[in-house]
Design brief:
Blueprint lengths: L2 E5 L3 H13 L3 E5 L2 H10 L4 E5 L7 H9 L6 E6 L3 H10 L3 E5 L3 H16 L11 E4 L2 E4 L4 E4 L2 E2 L4 H11 L6 E2 H9 L7 H16 L6 E4 L3 E4 L10
Parallel strand pairs: 1-2, 1-3, 3-4, 4-5
Antiparallel strand pairs: 6-7, 7-8, 8-9, 10-12, 11-12
Length: about 240
């Protein structure tokens, strides 16, 4: 069904993850440290990465940062219960989700399944939504999984794309955080509102590089797309 790269310096953890994912029909490739994880990612076609935060050579945060330079591949962090700060940093760097150790193999497999589904969903045109959404200089091409600002492409992960797509379907409408969680992650999620905030900050950082900020925070409520006028060249 999918090829999953599992990077963890604990062989037992890798075996548990491999068993859980292979039971669901996935192919698993392994890496025992961060440097090897980047090597395997560059040489093998992985559809998703399960990434431990604390690893020798290069830690998971470094690996995530490097991967995000070139790829939107879904990334699931494995972290210990006392590493909340690292989990938040991981989300800020572009990870899609995390599971805390010790974890249930079934829960991990369910998270992987949901992430793969989200990664595929933006490339499919929803029956109740146009193939392209636009508000002022902001445009989302759903079929191509492409985001543009004034003609320049903004590189988004699958989760970031889904969140922006949810906001852009009704520009100006305020979406509460729980509603965005439901729209982006669907049923059976384990996502907190803090995770949504981290993804929104990541999106805004990417637009800031183009001198833009299309998302407005409504404090105590949620987020909305700023209502902007049309570009003169587009009428």
């Amino acid at each position: 069904m999918a090829t999953v790269l599992v990077a963890d310096d604990d062989r037992h953890i890798r075996e548990v993850v491999r068993f859980a994912l292979e039971r669901d029909g996935h192919q698993v490739i392994e890496a025992e440290d961060g440097a090897r994880a980047l090597e395997r990612f560059r040489t093998d076609s992985a559809d998703l990465i399960v990434l431990d935060i604390v690893m020798p050579e290069r830690d998971g945060l470094e690996v995530c940062r490097e991967v995000r330079r070139t790829s939107p591949v879904p990334i699931l962090f494995l972290s210990s219960r006392d590493e909340e700060l690292d989990r938040i940093l991981g989300l800020e760097m572009g990870a899609d989700d995390y599971v805390t150790k010790p974890f249930s193999p079934r829960e991990l497999a369910a998270r992987v399944k949901a992430m793969l589904r989200r990664a595929a969903a933006p490339r499919l045109e929803p029956s109740d939504s146009p193939a392209a959404l636009r508000s002022g200089e902001l445009e989302l091409d759903v079929a191509r999984h492409q985001c543009l600002w004034h003609g320049s492409e903004v590189f988004l992960t699958a989760t970031e794309f889904l969140l922006l797509h949810s906001l852009l379907r009704t520009p100006g409408r305020v979406y509460a955080r729980p509603e965005l969680v439901e729209r982006a992650y669907g049923d059976g999620h384990h996502i907190t509102e803090r995770t949504v905030d981290s993804h929104i900050r990541r999106i805004r950082q990417k637009f800031a590089e183009l001198g833009a900020d299309p998302i407005e925070t409504i404090y105590g409520v949620g987020y909305r797309i700023r209502e902007t006028g049309k570009h003169p060249e587009r009428g």
